[in-house]
Amino acid sequence: MRKQIVAGNWKMNNDVAQTESLLANLKNQTKTTNAEVMVAPTFVNLASAAKALEGSGIEAVAQNMHFAESGAYTGEISASMLKSVGVKTVILGHSERREYFNETDETLAKKVDAALANNLRIIFCFGEVLADRKSNNQEAVVESQISNALFHLNADAYKNIVLAYEPVWAIGTGETASPEQAQDMHAFIRKTLATKYGSDVANNTSVLYGGSCKPGNAKEIFSKPDVDGGLIGGAALNADDFFAIVNAF
Ligand code: PGA
Q1: Which of 51, 74, 95, 150 reaches 20 to 30 Å from 196, CA-CA?
Q2: Whose CA is nearest to atom 6 of ligand 1?
């Protein structure tokens, strides 16, 4: 059975005091579903967040990492450094990383390998831009993003991989993919995995939806059979909203 997961991506938000306050508010919330809950604070707050969340049932995860183990990469952070502060999961390939920091399928494939070599779980993000959707090219784009960064892996690696479909035109725009658009793409993603790895991997890999997911639309999106949860940006910055999404299953 694949897991239901709701992960909050805080992006470049929340200083130390704001992080402490949001974590305290999150710890006061009640979870009424089986969904796994994760939040991704900024790197400066990640170690303290991991400590503060110990035993809370909420996991602190990283927003990014470098593929090298150590060395002359100013400003970067490695997989083993994440592990050393108790982090077990890393988000890779977010569209903002691809767009503003030139992440490519090739660098992402290296990051995927480095994360797996360090036993980190990966939330791997991908999704088409508006022009791809308008030209009805979204499936080809998504298929190439997945295959270029992940299809060198063996089936066993998927125990540590969660996929996150995030149509770029829906991120932070207030525009959400309709539940049907999300379901169609998630079914396509599962079919793509099944063709490459067989139905076991396809059926056991969680595929999250991301892009303007909110308390008001989460229930309908999560009710779709191939949607296993969400990667939440803006709405994850408010504990009540975030837990309304967690409890939408
Ligand atoms: P959003 O961001 O919920 O603010 O659209 C989602 C994401 O970038 O993961």
Answers
A1: 95
A2: 233
pLDDT in tens, 19-52: 999 999 999 999 999 999 999 999 999 999 999 9
User: pLDDT tens across 138-152, in order?
Assistant: 999 999 999 999 999
Tell me the two tokens of residue 50: 């991991």
Distance between Cα 176 and ligand 1 center (Å): 10
- CB 171 less than 6 A from any atom of ligand 1: yes
Residue 241, both tokens: 């909203």
Q: Work out the burial of residue 94: count CB atoms within 10 Å of its CB; fewer than 13 is exposed, 13-18 middle, 19 or more buried.
A: buried
**pLDDT mean over 226-243:** 98
The residue ranges of DSSP E strands in the chain, in sequence order, are: 5-9, 36-40, 58-60, 89-92, 121-126, 161-165, 207-210, 229-232
pLDDT at position 174 is 80
Q: What is the pTM of this model?
A: 0.97
Nearest by Cα to 232 from 5, 1, 4, 2: 5
Task: For residue 30, give both structure tokens.
Answer: 């009640």
List, in order, residues 6 or more apart from 129 with CB less than 8 Å away.
141, 168, 169
234: Cβ below 6 Å to ligand 1? yes
- Verify whether ligand 1 is closer than 6 Å to residue 123 (CB atom): no
Active site residues: 94, 166
